[in-house]
Amino acid sequence: MRRIAAGPTAVIGDFRRYPGCRLLLSCGACGWTKSYNAERILARLLELKTGGHATRLDQVAKRVQWPCPGCHRMHWKAGFAYPAYIDAGEVRRQAARYRN
Ligand SMILES: [Zn+2]
């Protein structure tokens, strides 16, 4: 995964600015990571009425209620990242999809 420097005020709805990106949950203690479909996480927040496009990534990380499989602590951080397989062509295709 290639992490995207989205800044401390990044919100979940920002995933549309980074076509093809994933929501990367990472453990601040041991570095264990798991990636998620950002669109689905947003849909889930809306469904549960616990958030929306403007929910900050640090709030998303705080909502994670399970301990890290690597170190059994809860030091979650959330950010955006591109999967390794995303190339320039894929970024363009995804961008076109969000424009339409
Ligand atoms: Zn950990």
Tally of helical segments? 3
Strand order of the largest sheet: 1-4-2-3
Query: H/E element string?
Result: EEEHHEH
Q: Please mark out the parts with pLDDT under 50 across 5 or more consecutive residues, or reply none.
A: none
Describe the 3D structure.
The structure is a single chain. The protein is α+β, with helices and mostly antiparallel strands. It has one domain (2-99). The protein contains 3 helices and 4 strands. The chain has helices spanning 38-47, 57-62, 88-99; strands at residues 2-4, 22-27, 33-36, 76-82. It has a 4-stranded antiparallel sheet. A hairpin with a 5-residue loop joins strand 2 and strand 3 (33-36). The longest helix is centred in the C-terminal third of the chain and has 12 residues, at 88-99. The two termini are 27 Å apart. The mean pLDDT is 90. The site of zinc ion has 8 residues, from loops.
